[in-house]
Amino acid sequence: MGVSEVRHLPVQVETFPVGFFQTNVYLVVEPSSGEALVVDPGGGLPEIRERVRAQGLSVRALVATHAHFDHVLDADLFAEWADVPLLLHPADRILLEQRETQLRSFGFPVPRALRMPPVEALQEGVTLTLGRVVLEVWHTPGHSPGHVVLVEKARTFALVGDLIFRGSIGRVDLPGGDAVQMQRSLLRFLQELPDTIWLFPGHGPVTTLGDERVHNPFLREGGIA
Ligand SMILES: [Zn+2]
Ligand SMILES: [Zn+2]
């Protein structure tokens, strides 16, 4: 599931699965500029720091697809290291503030004193530029109120958080989850994006929208309509 098998991307995507839920922390690198983006800073800072150092990269942004604790647990440490704020949709800010509560509700210990990172609001329609690559922010609520995905402007890839996985979709039964909004977010995704687009989910392996359209039982025709 390395990215080496994913061809024709304008970026390199390195995946660092962390923690009990094997949450994918992504280091997205635009090679011509050496500019990088970290998505879902749930952990893995030592490894990512080493990759950034070894390749001489410049981390331009830190993005959370949403603020379930496993996706943002170490956001304060990443923000301090990279000297950038965490970009997060305002509707999930309360979840970020409640990382400790979230940990406890899953029965996990709080590993250290968690601090709030500096936060900047990420909204539908905003674009992020990484060298020659432009990423659009789509607000895709359902799994959480402030869930967003990053869709590359040329539609070669998207970072999709817990919206869609290989063979599954994000659950809607956690606090703030909403099944109707989830259906809407998935429908928009299916209707507006090409089958060839690579999807980098918050958990599990990379896939394409075309593969999911055929094999994902939650997306089959009628399944979400
Ligand atoms: Zn989640
Ligand atoms: Zn998740």
Give a verbal description of the structure.
By secondary structure, the protein is α/β, with parallel strands linked by helices. The chain has one domain: Metallo-beta-lactamase, Chain A (4-Layer Sandwich), CATH 3.60.15.10. The protein contains 7 helices and 14 strands. The protein has a 6-stranded mixed sheet. A 6-stranded mixed sheet has the order 7-8-9-10-13-14. The protein has a two-stranded antiparallel sheet with strand order 11-12. Strand 7 and strand 8 form a beta hairpin. The chain is globular, with a radius of gyration of 16 Å. The two termini are 31 Å apart.
Order of helices and strands: EEEHEHHEHHEEEEEEEHEEH
User: What class do helices, strands and sheet pairing give?
Assistant: alpha/beta
Do you know the CATH topology? Metallo-beta-lactamase, Chain A
Tally of individual helices: 7
Q: Helicity range of the residues?
A: 10-25%
CATH class: Alpha Beta
Cα-based radius of gyration, to the nearest Å: 16 Å
What are the low-pLDDT stretches, counting only 5+ consecutive residues below 50?
none
Mean pLDDT level: 95
- Quaternary structure state of the chains depicted: single chain
> Which shape, going by the Cα principal axes?
globular
Main sheet properties? 6 strands, mixed
Quick overview:
It is built from 7 helices and 14 strands. The chain has helices spanning 45-55, 69-72, 75-82, 93-97, 99-105, 179-192, 209-215, and strands spanning 12-18, 23-30, 35-39, 58-63, 86-88, 119-121, 127-130, 133-139, 148-152, 157-161, 164-165, 168-169, 198-201, 207-208. The protein starts with 11 loop residues before the first strand and ends in a 10-residue tail after the last helix.
